[in-house]
Amino acid sequence: MVAAAEVNSSGPEKIRILVADDQGVIRMGLAMILDHEPDLMTVAQADDGEEAIRMIAQYDPDVVLMDIRMPVMDGLEATERITKAAKESGRDRPAVLVLTTFDDEAYVLSAVRAGASGFLLKDTDPDLLVSAVRAVHRGDSLVDPASTRVLLERCVELERQVGSGPADSAPVGAGRWTGPLAQLSEREREILVWMARGLSNRDLAAKLFVSETTVKTHVSSVLSKLGLSSRVQAVVVAYEAGVVRPGEAEVRWEG
């Protein structure tokens, strides 16, 4: 069991981070990168998913960096429990940013289904890691660009296998707004399409000439109506429904 180390800070409120990884060297390395930033602070470290869940109750982090392969309880199960508990309590934190050394579509899809707000490989550039932490804290969902391609291609492949993929000539947003998608208002459908294209809350606010608060309200409504836990899950739904096509999505990495 890893003893938690909370750091006292003064000045502006910092983003509180819990790092969960079964390798001490990795945990310490991540903590050093994050604590070097003036707006970030590592408040606790856990060496398995079960301990991470206990520490969330104790340290109340804003973001959890979660390894996938850990003993006792792996990161996927821990992520699912964390996001489910947050959803049931009506909270939007902590956001879970999954880290792994395995560039495998199965892990990407599993992390998304578990409710992770982001997915990064452990060899990600430190600046990208820091930007991703800030982004998921803002409410934007991010995944590693390479893994995004794998994820979306896999979704499209599954659609083609069942013979329900949209025709290549279909215009953007002309997929099937049926089932749960039929509950969305016109503005919410627009929000979903632009989310699937990779726009952040800030991008959406600028594009739609509304405040980020308004965008967050629409995004929350979309996720609630679709029964989803994260924006990444919404992207998958948009592709599965054919309302967005491959090649139209891009991931924005912003600090």
Structure characterization notes:
The chain is an alpha/beta fold and 255 residues long. It is 48% helix and 12% strand. Strand 3, helix 3 (75-88) and strand 4 (95-100) form a beta-alpha-beta unit. The longest helix has 17 residues, at 145-161. Mean pLDDT is 81; it is low at 3-9, 164-174 and 251-255.
**Order of strands side by side in the largest beta sheet?**
2-1-3-4-5-6
> What Rg is obtained from the alpha carbons, in whole angstroms?
18 Å
* Main sheet record: 6 strands, parallel
Which class best fits the helix and strand makeup?
alpha/beta
Distance between the termini: 33 Å
Q: Please give the count of helices.
A: 10
Shape: globular
Low-confidence stretches: 3-9, 164-174, 251-255
The sequence of SSEs as H and E is EHEHEHEHEHEHHHHH
* Helix content, binned percent: 40-55%
The residue-averaged pLDDT reads: 81
Strand content is 5-15%
Strands, total number: 6
